[in-house]
Write a structure and sequence with these properties.
The protein contains 5 helices and no strands. The protein is mainly alpha-helical. It has a domain of 72 residues: 434 Repressor (Amino-terminal Domain) (Orthogonal Bundle), CATH 1.10.260. GO terms for molecular function: DNA binding.
Length: 114
């Protein structure tokens, strides 16, 4: 499942199987049994087994299993970022300080007369 550059050409079933293979590989790499992952994720072992075989399961169960396997990072691509218009970017740039300035008022604590 390393090269998914062709993922748009895969069927839904093939993508689900690839997700199942990923889950199984992460579980084995974590040295966890299906029973252990299922218990920690609060799903049945048969649900996890179905997931690993590429069968349809509920999305909430996928999230629970990914959380247990510390693999929620795969969802980072789903983050929506609003594009900043060039005009807004220019306005934000104007607000930034361009130079350092000195405080011309003497600091009472640091100021001493001789």
């Amino acid at each position: 499942m390393n090269d998914l550059s062709h993922i748009s050409s895969l069927s839904d079933a093939a993508i689900i199987r690839a997700i199942g293979e990923f889950i199984k590989a992460k579980r084995i790499d974590s040295n966890l049994t299906q029973d252990e992952v299922a218990e920690q994720a609060a799903v049945s072992r048969s649900t996890l087994s179905l997931m690993e075989r590429g069968e349809n399961t509920a999305l909430i169960n996928l999230l629970k299993v990914l959380r247990v396997l510390d693999a929620l990072y795969v969802l980072n691509l789903f983050t929506v970022t609003e594009p900043i218009s060039p005009l807004q970017l220019a306005k934000e740039d104007e607000k930034k300080r361009k130079r350092a300035s000195r405080n011309n008022k003497p600091n009472d604590k640091a100021y001493t007369e001789w």
